[in-house]
Amino acid sequence: MAEKKEHKIITSEAAKTAKNNGVAAQQIAQSTVGLRVGSVVLWIVALVAEFFAIKAILAPEDDPFISGMAPLTAGIIFLVVDLIAVIAGSLLWKKANHIHPASEKNALTFWLWNNLGVIMTAIAFIPFVILLLTNKNADQKTKTVGTIVAVVAMLIAGVSSYDFNPYSAEEQQEILNMENATSTVYWTEGGTVFHIYSECQHLNNSEELHQTTIDEAEQAGKERLCKTCLKRHEKEAAEAPAQISEEGQSALEEATETAETVKEEVTEAVEE
Ligand SMILES: [Zn+2]
């Protein structure tokens, strides 16, 4: 066995930026439980505030919170709390959806998941408006002002809660695949293949290694991935699941699938 040489690695510009990739992969590993719990808690706060807004305007006599305050003023203060809580909840929910998106395969679930903030906005204001307008004791001024404030708040919250760029699990997978494809590989001037691992045994005798994207390696005439590197990569992918979370595992399974596709392509290319 030849003595292993110290490699001098020449990294291409594209490979330098490719090394900073992995944003989607990082996101997938991040848990969104905290964000989802946070949004549900804030939505509950919004509903409690709505309840107090209704109580302040429609049954002010037995409300200890608003002693000395005009019922309409108290109602508006509670509506503002309602507004802030519902928007904050929706923003957390949207953030969680962009980290762990729903699948587009089930259109109804996908729609509900992405529009839950808007649905919560409706629940946080519409009952107030209906109860106010159908109440016989409230005077005309209270009805008009209360309704206008609630509808404006609902519009503001609705626009803030709506996801104008809903993100799907499928889109996220595409980005992951792209990141996979732009990860860096190693090759030598004289070689015909590219390698995943710089310490691959076939590179032991090479002093100078180029580190580039797969695209650049192909442009440099390196036709396929080294078989030793592919075997090692598959072995590592197969061993890894025991130590990682469920979320990581599904990401890994998808990555392994991609590796299978690459393998098939490589095999086809060799046979041609
Ligand atoms: Zn190799």
Question: Can you put this structure into words, describing what you see?
Answer:
The longest helix has 29 residues, at 71-99. 27% of the residues are buried. By secondary structure, this protein is mostly helical. The chain has helices at residues 13-18, 23-29, 33-58, 71-99, 107-134, 140-161, 169-181, 214-219, 227-239, 246-271, and strands at 8-11, 184-187, 193-194, 208-213, 224-225. It has two domains: 8-21 and 182-271, no CATH class; 25-170, no CATH class. A three-stranded mixed sheet has the order 1-4-2. A two-stranded parallel ribbon has the order 3-5. The protein has ten helices and five strands, in the order βαααααααβββαβαα. Bound molecules: zinc ion. Residues 195, 200, 202, 226, 228-229 line the site of zinc ion (ZN).
Short note summarizing the structure:
By secondary structure, this protein is mostly helical. The chain has 10 helices and 5 strands, in the order E-H-H-H-H-H-H-H-E-E-E-H-E-H-H.
